[in-house]
Design a protein that fits this description.
Layout (H helix, E strand, L loop, with lengths): L1 E4 L5 H8 L2 H7 L6 H12 L5 E6 L5 E11 L4 E8 L8 H15 L5 E7 L3 H9 L3 E12 L2 E11 H6 L14
Helix pairs in contact: 1-3
């Protein structure tokens, strides 16, 4: 698994992933036109407080979008988000992608705290985050409106010292096939 910078040419992939009903429900996003997705990627590319990546299989197949957003380099905080292709969920790719982005945040950037927010019913995301070392800090009650219904959202975070204490290899220590 690898990460590659998201580019405007990737808009069709992101557009298709956003249209997935499970992603729409669990991530709380809705389908947008392809041109709107393309414009969003262009606008986000110029933002200095976020980094967006494609999640790639070892053969280079893109299977998702992961981002580190709201980066505050003074306070050392950011938020992580992940969206995977429906055909590649439940296979450990989400955990690998989150580990890689967390390693970037703490190993290359001056982050002290990375947080994630997801519906309290999004058991897949909650499991990925827990395996990555994130700790639930609380629940924001009725904080998300989606399709006419209110949802509670979990707020989870991983601190630098917790990341340092994790007993797993860092993404840069893993062997990459063919290198």
């Amino acid at each position: 698994m690898a990460l590659a910078p998201l580019d405007v040419d990737d808009a069709e992939l992101v557009h298709a992933w956003r249209a997935d009903p499970v992603a729409a429900h669990e991530v709380g996003m809705w389908p947008r036109s392809l041109s709107a997705v393309r414009e969003r990627i262009e606008r986000d590319r110029d933002e200095h407080d976020r980094d967006d990546f494609l999640v790639l299989l070892p053969d280079g197949t893109p299977i998702g979008h992961i981002a580190l957003t709201g980066q505050d380099l003074v306070d050392g905080t950011a938020e992580i988000m992940l969206m995977l292709d429906p055909d590649h969920r439940g296979q450990g790719h989400g955990s690998d992608a989150v580990d890689a982005l967390v390693d970037l945040a703490f190993g290359e950037l001056p982050m002290h705290r990375v947080q994630a927010v997801t519906h309290t019913t999004n058991t897949a995301a909650l499991g990925v985050l827990a395996r990555a070392g994130f700790v639930q800090e609380g629940v924001r009650r009725s904080a998300c409106l989606h399709r006419g219904r209110r949802y509670d959202v979990s707020v989870l975070a991983l601190l630098r010292d917790e990341w340092q204490a994790l007993a797993r290899p860092r993404s840069w220590d893993l062997l990459v096939p063919g290198q």
